[in-house]
Amino acid sequence: MDNGQTAMQLGWLDGGVIVAYLLGTLWLGLWVSRRAGANLQEYFLAGKTMPWWLLGISNASGMFDIAGTMWLVTVCFLYGLKSAWLPWVWPIFNQVFLMVYLSAWLRRSNALTGADWLKSRFGDGPGSLWCQGVVVLFAVVSAVGFVAYGFQGIGKFAAVFLPWDLSSDTYALIIFALTTLYVIKGGMYGVVMTELLQFILMTLAAVAVGIIAMQQVSPEQLAAVIPAGWDSLWFGWNLDLDWSAQLPAAAAQIEKDGMQLFGIMIMLMLCKGVLFSMAGPVPNYDMQRILAAKSPSEAAKMSAVVSLVMFIPRYLMVAGFAVLALVYLRPEIAAAGSNFDFERLLPVAIERFVPAGLAGLLIAGLLAAFMSTFSASLNAAPVYLVHDVYRKFINPNRSEQFYVSLSRYVAVALVVVGTLLGLMLNSINDIMQWIFGALFGGYAAANLLKWHWWRFNSWGYAAGMLTGLIASLALPLLYPELPPLQAFPYLLVAGLVGSVAGTLLTKPEPDAVLCQFYKQVRPWGVWGPIAAKVQAADPGFVPDQTPGRDALNILVGMAWQLCLVVWPICLVIRQWSGFWAATALFALTSLWLYRFWYKTLKD
User: Fold this and answer.
1) What count of Cα atoms within 13 Å lies in the side-chain half-sphere of residue 68?
2) Residues 6+ away with beta carbon under 8 Å from 96
3) Taking CA atoms, which of 205, 217, 336, 377 is between 20 and 30 Å from 187?
């Protein structure tokens, strides 16, 4: 078992399922394209007419990506139940912050893009134009990074599973071309409707994998191959998970990951994750779906759906493959030693353990996972260049149909650039760590301050975003051995210094702009002078008085979300005490959120 492994041999039934899925997805995306070309709002936000539950499923489908799933299988194999904490590096609990308050705040702007939203916060002055330009740059750079990330994931996956003897890069190029076709033709209508189909397919495949693992691996078989503490959620300062006697390759990989001081690493993830989550969504498909919701309350409910529908099926699959690999692939992994590529655990496990008939469904489901993430990322980015740059500064008088057509050409250009980057990089983990650890790290300071500090102005935002972005791009070049998570404090300080300096060296935004923003969005934080002016002009205005309730709902929501991750893992490994504890805690936290979050939603 090595990187040169030939593709698996599929039966005609499995091959037929895959072909039917690909053709069906393409047909559906093209069929709904009739509604996509009227104007930019129809093309990128589906006219803000889609129901919240459908946008939530679409958003969840976009996050159910194949490259991320390959990483999750790897960390579940290595860290066991403790791997439930590791997605905090992204962080997954940002969806809790969104559902509790940030989605509603963002949707109240009624904007088309993240850069467009900045007009409501900073007005139309020169500084506002600069900060909008920085957001456009960030959106384009992150979109290209996501394309490269997907290129690596789908290439490694397809080289094992698709039946022709092609290179991983060739497979990635073919699938990129197919997905790009329906994305640029159908816009957000095409993306959302195909993602609904893809999510159903992925869920069926994920549940099937969980059932297969429970049928083929007994608790006794699993207990014989895992180190002490693997099936426990809890940890101390040290990882205390000793693979050295049972599987030295796993011990070497944990050392390479730098996770021996597990408690400290989780604290770093939590600290970074809270700050990042308070900053709000980056300008990608997550923000796009919030802006596409019918109302602020529906935007909040949409963000709750993402966690509710995504984690259980995804982690049934993740835990299922990790357990199967632990019991049946361990001898081969041990024989490969340090040469084993743990990112290949997922495709190798599918090849070995999924019976004929289900293989086609599962491969189609994982192709759907890739295509969902890729299509969502690709659809969200071009509007920043077309609406916020070309239309605003170069040619504002063309027809809506022209701007839609131009968006399609821009999408193709982004695919080309991202593909070239993907061809130059070798590791999914390297790209993932760079995007989530470094690039997004430079985003946090300026975007946190924009919500919570009235004095923060457009020049501060532009300076903070620019210094954070430059630092995030420079650190991997200057200090290639520095892990991205450990680089986050330096990126945060760089962005914070740029933000505060840019703000204090320039004038505040006009009172009219700040008062209008505060009255429309009603954020909490350091807004005292502006709140006083708004209430003086409108004595009937009632400011937001619930930051304490929001903070408590976030804590409850994080526990609620963690239950959705722990529950399926405990089910697959038959860790019944953890399973029933997660079930009880999920019920209690759901009741709390219904009473103190859902029932309090308002537009």
Assistant:
1) 26
2) 277, 307, 554, 557, 558, 560, 561
3) 205
Q: Where are the alpha helices (DSSP H) in 36-125?
A: 40-45, 52-63, 66-79, 94-97, 103-107, 114-122
Q: Is residue 267 part of a domain?
A: no
CB 146 within 8 A of CB 284: yes
Q: Is the pLDDT score of 436 beyond 60?
A: no
- Take residue 222 and report the two structure tokens written for it: 């699993």
Number of domains in the chain: 1
**Average pLDDT of every residue of the chain:** 84
Q: Assess if residue 409 is contained within a domain.
A: yes
The answer to whether 118 touches 457, Cβ cutoff 8 Å, is no
| Alpha carbon distance 298, 283 (integer Å) | 19
Residues 6+ apart with CB under 8 A from 9: 163
DSSP, residue by residue, 571-589: HHHT-HHHHHHHHHHHHHH
Q: 317-343 burial string, b = 16+ CB within 10 Å, else e?
A: bbbbbbbbbbbbbbeebeeeeeebbbb
- On whether the CB atoms of residues 66 and 369 are closer than 8 A, the answer is yes
| CA 286 to chain CA centroid, nearest Å | 8
Q: Is residue 208 part of a domain?
A: yes
The token duo for 22 is 């690909």
Over range 54-81, report the average pLDDT: 85
For residue 509, how many other CB atoms are within 10 A of its CB? 23
Choose between 580 and 39: higher pLDDT. 580
DSSP secondary structure string, 119-185? Answer: HHHHTTSHHHHHHHHHHHHHHHHHHHHHHHHHHHHHHHHHHHHSSS---HHHHHHHHHHHHHHHHHH
Q: What is the extent of the structural domain holding 102? A: 12-235+243-249+284-426+555-600
As a whole number, mean pLDDT of residues 109-121 equals 81
CA dihedral 344, 347, 351, 356 (to 10 degrees): 170
Structure confidence at residue 432 as a pLDDT band (50, 70, 90): low
Judged against a pLDDT cut of 90, whether residue 348 lies above it is answered with: no
Long-range contacts of 223-227 (CB under 8 A, 24+ apart): 225/326, 225/327, 225/330, 226/80, 226/326
Pair 428, 69: CB distance under 8 Å: no
Query: Angle at the Cα of 316 (from 188 to 60), degrees rounded to 5?
Result: 15
Task: Output the domain CATH number for residue 42.
Answer: 1.20.1730.10
